[in-house]
Design brief:
Layout: H1 12-22, H2 32-37, H3 54-74, H4 77-83, H5 88-97, H6 115-128, H7 130-142, H8 145-151, H9 154-166, E1 170-173, E2 189-193, E3 196-207, E4 214-221, E5 230-237, E6 243-248, E7 259-270, E8 274-275, H10 281-292, H11 295-317, E9 319-320, E10 323-324, H12 329-358, H13 364-389, H14 391-394, H15 397-402, H16 410-418, H17 427-438, H18 440-446, H19 456-473, H20 500-524, H21 532-561, H22 565-591, H23 595-607
Parallel strand pairs: 1-4
Antiparallel strand pairs: 2-3, 3-7, 4-5, 5-8, 6-7, 9-10
Length: about 650
Amino acid sequence: MSAAPTKPTVTEREARQVAEAAREQDWRKPSFAKELFLGRFRLDLIHPHPLPTDEAAQRGEEFLAKLRDFVETKVDGAVIERDARIPDDVINGLKELGALGMKIDTKYGGLGLTQVYYNKALALVGSASPAIGVLLSAHQSIGVPQPLKLFGTQEQKERFLPRCARTDISAFLLTEPDVGSDPARLATSAVPDGDEYVLDGVKLWTTNGVVADLLVVMARVPKSEGHRGGITAFVVETNSPGITVENRNAFMGLRGIENGVTRFHQVRVPAANRIGEEGQGLKIALTTLNTGRLSLPASCVAAGKWCLKIAREWSAAREQWGKPIAHHEAVGSKISFIAATTFALEAVTDLASQMADEDRNDIRIEGALAKLYASEMAWLMADELVQIRGGRGFETAASLAARGERPVAAEQVLRDLRINRIFEGSTEIMHLLIAREAVDAHLSVAGDLIDPDKSLQDKARAGAQAGVFYAKWLPKLVAGPGQLPRSYSEFHPSGHVDLSPHLRYVERTARKLARSTFYAMSRWQGRMESKQGFLGRIVDIGAELFAMSAACVRAELLRGQGDHGREAYQLADVFCRQARIRVEELFGRLWTNTDDLDRKVVKGVLSGTYTWLEEGIVDPSGDGPWIAEATPGPSQRENVHRPIR
């Protein structure tokens, strides 16, 4: 029978080992971004731009037309924002439309859309109400359908996927009150008992959890005879005895999402509901997120398009000092930034999505870069829109409407976008995750050299391997096509802006980035992992280079299709020029920064050295624990779970 789980106590090293064991170890397919961080600009991996098949495009466009009609006639985003709830009839309408099964194969009752068209659908519905976009994304990108698609048995697919395609909403449960991006401390347990597991624990921030019918739950199986143990994934029926949704959480943005706290007390789950093997839970979660994260950039693209539309219309109508504000350089530069960045974000999202559909490349870094870059840049675009709108940008849409003006919800977009820099991997965690993958080639040949637990013999062997690798690799970082004036000439068609200098810059800068990474590893060796500021800047440079590449490739695609090619080239050119300024600043900050001083100040803050600086205020936040108690046991709260039928 089950025993009350105890909260694991782990060291920093043990936590890293758990995360390392969960990541995919091998690179069986090429990766454009991985090569970029190694100083190799493999343009052939993304150009010509991959495209969906005619059949996939037709099916996708037909669904988008139906979805557009639905959101235009049935969805009122202002009502969802006001009531902080998506009406049941809207959700049921989405079910009837098949929106719950966009990514599910047609043989299981789904629509079988590609990642490209799934993202276009999320962008469309998210522009009407971001809360609906989150509902559909949490259900399909990380909820039951995607893990089963990748790791489920045939019996599990036949049992659950038809339900997910039409009627049942799903959710993904990993985070706990005291566990965020450190899964080694996961406390929810799944104790084997015959042909079942008994779940005990509490999960926090369960998006869709309040209305879900099915859950993917990550729980720790104790190691015992016949059980390898470890963090394991389960499909759990939400109506199982012992499950209580104890709270529906409220947030600064995305007010319509059904996010809650879910308690498991002696919940019995059939062993047949286990996804994969025991101990594979984190690997399943990370693999699911490789493509699951691409839904977030889609919502950012939608926000960018809306910001551009409002900025264009408002800046032409609003006059100051005798001319529209768009013609004042201080405002015009913001509009240019929004337009160019929206173009680049769509380029990154579509490229990464099509690469996911083709499955020719390993996109774990590309997907992570898309999430990281889109979430940061979309927030900046929304902030600039609020600034362009001035006082009206700070005013709510309801207040604007009440006094007779167009209800432009600029402040809401800012609030709604803010979470994107946190969930599905915060910016800080994404920096570390991408950095780990970016230096994988180095660690695979020289990792033992900086591992304190390795023997002298292991270090000697690693030294020999590293010598061979770097003897071949380092000379290639000296020169390349980026130094040849005619390289990438196909990106300078007659009558268009010349994009080839930007691609030559990407090639040169990729080599410079690789040299900088190598120098840092040589300098800091085992301490490299603690240099999070440096690693973050390395990743941000790589993100800019990836976005520049995607923007140029997309511009050439549109030119070839005769679809706004000249304008696309102009936008790509402006974006690349803006990105190059950011890249040069990041390179400067690699070695000239306040990282060491910042660490000293942090120690002082935590030790109380600067508490005098906090004087002269009152703290209205009151008392209470920083982290809510999550001791396993029966619930003492009312169950607020409300399945939608």
